[in-house]
Design goal:
With 110 residues, the protein is α/β, with parallel strands linked by helices. It has one domain: 3-Layer(aba) Sandwich (D-Maltodextrin-Binding Protein, domain 2). Helix content is 37%, strand content 13%. It is built from five helices and three strands. It has a three-stranded parallel beta sheet. It is globular. About 15% of the residues have low confidence.
């Protein structure tokens, strides 16, 4: 029995020593797009690929919308933590939906 315990302790310590000291559990969140994947969401994908979300402690999943989906409903139903919306968020908030605007990004069409 002592041999088994020594074996398990040795291998457990070896396994534990291979984990980096700065390893932390990342919070997993989903970003619900208001439409399908397109160039207008390039900034979100660039931040994901360049590790900005990871550096902020997040594992981010980007979920495209399907016909008939509503980004606000996906967030308020708990299927996503964040969503891309439009100025109609003001009306949603006034109607009592638990939505909060985090950032306003102005976009001009060519």
């Amino acid at each position: 029995m002592p041999q088994l315990i020594r074996f398990l302790l040795t291998h457990t310590l070896l396994l534990a020593s291979s984990i980096p000291f700065n390893a932390v559990a990342l919070d997993t969140v989903t970003l619900q797009l208001k439409w399908t994947h397109s160039f207008e969401y390039a900034g979100y994908y660039a931040a994901l690929e360049q590790g900005y979300y990871r550096d902020a402690g997040l594992t981010v999943g980007i979920k495209e919308a399907q016909p008939g989906f509503d980004a606000v409903t996906e967030v308020t139903d708990g299927k996503a933590e964040y969503g891309i919306g439009s100025s109609s968020l003001i009306l949603d908030h006034k109607a009592g939906k638990p939505v909060v605007v985090i950032a306003v990004i102005l976009q001009h069409s060519p």
